[in-house]
Amino acid sequence: MNKHWSGAGRGPFGVAVAALALYALFLRPRVLTWGATHEEAARDLPGDELILDADGSSTMATTLPAPPEAVWPWLQQMGCNRGGWYSWDRLDNGGHPSAQRIVPEWQHLEEGQHLDSLPSGDAWFTVAVLEPERTLVLRSQTTLPTGHPYDGLTEPPPRAYVDSVWGFHLRPEPGGRTRLIVRARARSRPRPLTRPVDVLFWEPAHLIMQTRQFHNLCTRVRETTA
To answer: What SUPFAM superfamilies does the record point to (predicted)?
Structure first.
C-alpha cells in the first residue's frame, strides 16, 4: 500500500470519514425519527402525496398533555406575524416571542392561505392540507440560492429549488392526551449540491428546531389546560 495513502487513512481525513460513516449508520436514523415509533415513521400520512419522489423525509413525534381540540388552536395560529413557531424565536421568528396564549384573530385558517416564514413576508408556507383538529400540512417552494418563493401550480420549478412539506398530524390518546406526529418531506435540485447540505446541516437543524417546538407546545398546552 502507498505509504502516503496509508498515513492519510489514519490522519484527519480518515477520522472524518469514520465519523461520517458512524453518523450515517447510527445517529442519522435517530435524527430523522426522533420520538416516533417504527410504525409512525412508516405510516402514510396526508401530504405525502404532494412530494411523491421525495429526496428526504423525517418523522418526529411527541405526546402532549391535552386532547386534539386543545392543541389545535396553537397550531392554527402559527406563522411569522402571527403566533410564531414556538421554537427558537431568534432563529425562526425574527426574535419576536411566540404567542403565550390563544389569539382569536389568528384562528382563521384555510387551504391556500399563506403563512409568513419570515417576518419580512418575503417567504411563506402555503396551507396545503387542512383537516381541523387532525391535520395541518404546510408547503414551501423556494428558489435557490435566493430563497424567493415560486408557485409550482402555475410555473415549472427553477433549475435550483427546494420543494418541501411540513405536516402536523394529531391523534387522540387515552387519558385526554394527543399524539403529535410531524412529517417533513422535501425534493431539491441540483441534488449533488443539496444532498450534503441536507444531511450535514438541514436535518440536524430541523431536529433542534422541532424538538424545541415540541417542548414549548407541551408547556403552553399544559399551562392553558391545567
So the answer is: Bet v1-like (SSF55961)
Identity of the amino acid at 164: S
CA distance readout (Å), 215 to 3, 118, 158, 210, 212: 52, 22, 36, 9, 5
Q: What's the domain range around 26?
A: 10-225
Give residue-wise pLDDT tens across range 62-89.
Answer: 999 999 999 999 999 999 999 999 999 9
CA atoms 110, 114, 188, 204: torsion sign: negative
Contact assessment for residue 117 and residue 124, using Cβ atoms and an 8 Å cutoff? yes
Residue pair 56/183 in contact (Cβ under 8 Å)? The answer is: no
User: Per the domain annotation, does 2 fall within a domain?
Assistant: no
Query: How many folded domains does the chain comprise?
Result: 1
176: left (phi over 0), alpha (psi -120 to 50) or beta: left
- Where in the chain does DSSP place strands (E)? 56-64, 114-116, 124-131, 135-143, 161-173, 177-189
Residue 171 pairs with which residues in a beta bridge? 179
Is the torsion defined by CA of 196, 200, 201, 203 positive or negative? positive
Cα three-residue angle 147-149-152, rounded to 5 degrees: 130
CATH of the domain at 110: 3.30.530.20
> Is residue 104, in this structure, part of any structural domain at all?
yes
pTM metric for this prediction: 0.89
**Each residue of 93-113: pLDDT tens digit?**
999 999 999 999 999 999 999
Q: What's the alpha-carbon Rg for the chain, to the nearest Å?
A: 19
Residues facing 136 on adjacent strands: 130, 168
